[in-house]
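hey can u check if this looks right to u? its 266 residues, i copy pasted from the old doc so theres a chance i mangled smth
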Amino acid sequence: MQAGGGSGWPAIERGQGRPIVLLPGYPLDHRIWQAQLGPLSEQHRIVLLDLPGFGRAESLPAPATLSEFSDHVARLLAEHIPGTAVVVGHSFGGYVALNLFREHPELFAGIVLTDTRSEPDTVEAREKRLATVRRSSETGEGVDVEATTKALLAPSTWKAGGSLVDDVRAIVRSARPESIRGALTAIANRPDHTDTLSRIRVPALVIWGDDDQLIPPAQSRAMVAHLSKGTGVGIPGAGHLPSLESPDRFNQVIARFLDQLPRNPG
């Protein structure tokens, strides 16, 4: 395993071959991909890349715009990954991936969007996020750890409890308030990327948890119709984190998609 940290290369890597770059959602970090690192690295170079303000990049300030997040990722990919990569974006990481594709399509060999959507926030949702930012600025507090953890998981996963719930709770708790404020502002002000979907000409996959409580599966599923080379798969019994809640099924879906890609010229 190769590992990096800080502003240089805030990633954990394993394997060789085609680069597969996995971007976590909010307020999460590379640990949501731990169950993918081993199985998928048998045939690919798996890169778990943290976004500014979180995980191995927590020392960096979290930007307040989606473009700044995607520009940061673009710089890192240009420095550390020659040629193209498959970019996997979860939730907020999916927003970043879509923005990255809009501005740097040449970086992509394929794209996977999991438990995310292309539409912007409604007026009500945007105001709710920004109200949370204002409240955090006044109090210095972060997110409600219990409520956030519960929302990230399928009801059955939450009810079962155990180490998986504890692990997610620990990830959520580790997010710094200032990073939460930056990311929430970027999410609240993100553009509509539905038109970006129609521009994607590389192979694309959309995955969603059938019991996602945060992003309705119908919103993830709707993206597939806009993709010229896209397919969609729902994961039964999983919530917003199918990579953790149903890792075997999630890995099978990802592996099948990767196996069908054109051979990596590198």
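The two ends are 21 Å apart (CA to CA).
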